[in-house]
Amino acid sequence: MLGGKKLAVHRMLPTEVRGARARQPGEVLAEQGTLFAACGDGSWLELVEVQPEGKRRMTAGEFLRGHAVESGTRLGTDRVQGTGCRVQGAEKRRSAFGKNSG
Predict the structure, then answer these.
(1) What pLDDT, on the 0 to 100 scale, is given for residue 22?
(2) 20 to 30 A Cα–Cα from 5, which one of 54, 67, 78, 98?
(3) Tell me: the pLDDT tens digits for 18-36?
């Protein structure tokens, strides 16, 4: 949930966000057309492909162009509470607010 509407996440990648302060689980950071979500263990996920309720799948950049998402907004709480975000089978990417380096 984001802003009272369902937001399905179809693709996400574990990442590091340099210079970002620690956040509560589920808080989002929107920077330079990229959408990140904080996990409970201090790590971050880059939300790559999302689908707003009643809409088509789209990249996070497309979503952000059509939806004002303030950094610090929190995703729905029923599924983000706990020890943290865990994504298996995905390589960790380093990110400096959307700039990937390996």
Answers:
(1) 64
(2) 98
(3) 777 767 888 999 988 999 9
Question: DSSP label at 30?
Answer: E
Of the chain, the end-to-end C-alpha distance in Å amounts to: 31
Q: Which of the two residues, 95 and 26, has the higher pLDDT score? A: 26
Q: Is residue 91 part of a domain?
A: no
What span, in angstroms and rounded, lies between the C-alpha atoms of 62 and 33? 8
In which domain, by residue range, is 20 found?
1-75
**Structure-token pair, residue 31:** 């920077």
Place of tokens 């809409």: 55
Q: Are strands 34-38 and 28-31 parallel, antiparallel or unpaired?
A: antiparallel
Q: Is residue 95 part of a domain?
A: no
Residue type, 26: G
CA atoms of 93 and 64, how far apart (whole Å): 21
Strand partners, 34: 31
Q: Average pLDDT for residues 54-77, to the nearest whole number?
A: 89
Helices (H), the chain: 60-66
